[in-house]
Write a structure and sequence with these properties.
This protein is mainly α. The chain folds into two domains: about 210 residues, no CATH class; about 150 residues, no CATH class. The protein contains 20 helices and no strands. Helix 12 packs antiparallel against helix 13. The protein starts with a helix and ends in a 5-residue tail after the last helix.
């Protein structure tokens, strides 16, 4: 397995120098995402493979590929629309700040989307990502257990506490853990020699535990829903009754055991039963490690309150949006009109990527975003039978309902990389 990761096996040594260099740059990129205490290294890695992409193929070849990949052109056009919106905003300084956060939406699609990654190299990259992410998950789990034991505080193994050693918010790391699970399943389905079957089950169990401890509602729902749908397909379409029923029973057992041994995560789901709110409430925000009551602000009712304010702003700026630099100023004005002091004090963003894009960039921005980041890539995945790529797209598209990925450098980086990578692997027509 290590030989395969380092391209020291027979098939790996068959890659040419350009492919090997690209692979190791991407491996460095994956490792840099999880580097403890270093929050900027993945940006260095991003710019390194951006520069290298100009040596990978010619500009003419890049242009021919980009013409075939309309989704990549739309992703880059989306960033240009952000730039225009930032410059014409009243709060230009804020707009330029947001633009800097989103620069990877241009850099990564151009770098990855303008090259062709063949099936063999794709398999290596997927295996590299899954392996590095699994190592990060194991490291976080070990560190969490050590800290929890040393401080006699088991809450240190939950949510952001578990992933702070690698500088990650739990929602983003939970997404990557999910993608690692899908990657291992993809490699297993391909009967790849790059994975060790004896280690696969223990690694998947660890990833399942880490996913649950990170307490990201969306990530947990996506992972279990996907597994359930996969089991149903096995039963109905492939007539594999035993495999499908075994998987469903395994999911139920895993869910029971996780809830039994790690009950704090359930607090995140209990919040969904407390959706009522009073804009003028000065109550504290709930936390997974505290008793949950109906009068608190929590992850569910905060989002509903913010979404209602954002929708009011959208109705007033439907076509052209508020402008990238003015979106938070206008949203806070709506918070003030509703007496939503908590939203102002905590500087709450929209917590919904679709509403955020529509609010700030208008209907044109939303259409370009949907077409470039979701609709066209999904169409191509369905057309080519790329279920792995489709699962990545579904995971991101669902997560975007509850988070504003575009307001975080890491969110932009992950979104841009994985969607561009899906496109880079499509065969030339």
């Amino acid at each position: 397995m290590l030989k395969g990761l380092l391209l020291r096996d027979t098939r790996g040594s068959g890659f040419d120098k350009k492919e090997k260099t690209l692979y190791f740059l991407l491996l460095f990129f994956f490792a840099s995402l999880y580097m403890p205490g270093v929050t900027w290294l993945y940006n260095v890695a991003m710019w390194l493979f951006f520069v290298y992409s100009f040596f990978f193929n010619s500009m003419l070849q890049k242009w021919e590929l980009l013409k075939q990949r309309k989704e990549i052109l739309l992703m880059m056009a989306f960033l240009l629309l952000n730039a225009i919106s930032a410059l014409v905003s009243h709060n230009r300084q804020e707009g330029i700040s947001f633009l800097g956060i989103r620069i990877s939406l241009f850099v990564i699609p151009f770098a990855i989307g303008s090259i062709y990654v063949n099936a063999q190299l794709k398999e290596r990259v997927v295996a590299g990502f899954a392996t590095v992410t699994a190592c990060a998950a194991i490291g976080c789990l070990a560190w969490g257990m050590y800290r929890a034991g040393a401080n006699h505080d088991w809450s240190l193994m939950y949510n952001d506490n578990l992933s702070d050693i690698i500088n990650f918010q739990s929602i983003y790391f939970a997404m990557l853990v999910n993608l690692a699970v899908f990657s291992f399943v993809y490699l297993m389905a391909k009967k790849s020699t790059l994975i060790n079957e004896n280690l696969l089950v223990p690694v998947l169990i660890i990833l399942l535990v880490v996913n649950f401890l990170l307490a990201s509602r969306m990530a947990i729902i996506i992972l279990y829903s996907t597994a359930f749908v996969f089991a149903i397909i096995q039963i109905i379409r492939k007539k594999k009754w035993l495999e499908g029923i075994t998987l469903i029973m395994g999911l139920l057992l895993a869910g029971f055991l996780l809830v039994k041994f790690f009950p704090k995560t359930i607090n995140r789901f209990k919040e969904l039963s407390y959706t009522k709110f009073d804009y003028r409430s000065e109550a504290k925000e709930s936390h997974f490690n505290m008793a949950l009551t109906a009068d608190q602000w929590n992850g569910a009712n905060i989002r509903i309150a913010v979404w209602q304010c954002a929708w009011t702003v959208i109705k007033q700026n439907t076509i052209f949006g508020t402008g990238l630099g003015d979106k938070m100023d206008v949203l806070k004005q709506e918070y003030a009109r509703k007496g939503f002091a908590f939203g102002i004090q905590t500087n709450r963003n929209v917590h919904n990527n679709y509403l955020d894009v529509w609010m700030s960039l208008g209907l044109t921005g939303l259409i370009i975003f949907l077409a470039g980041f979701i609709i066209l890539p999904a169409y191509k995945c369905v057309h080519t039978g790329d279920w792995y790529g489709l699962m990545i797209l579904i995971s991101f598209s669902v997560s975007l309902f509850a988070e504003t990925y575009l307001d975080r450098t890491m969110g932009n980086t992950l979104l841009a990389f994985f969607i561009a990578f899906i496109s880079s692997c499509k065969k030339r027509p």
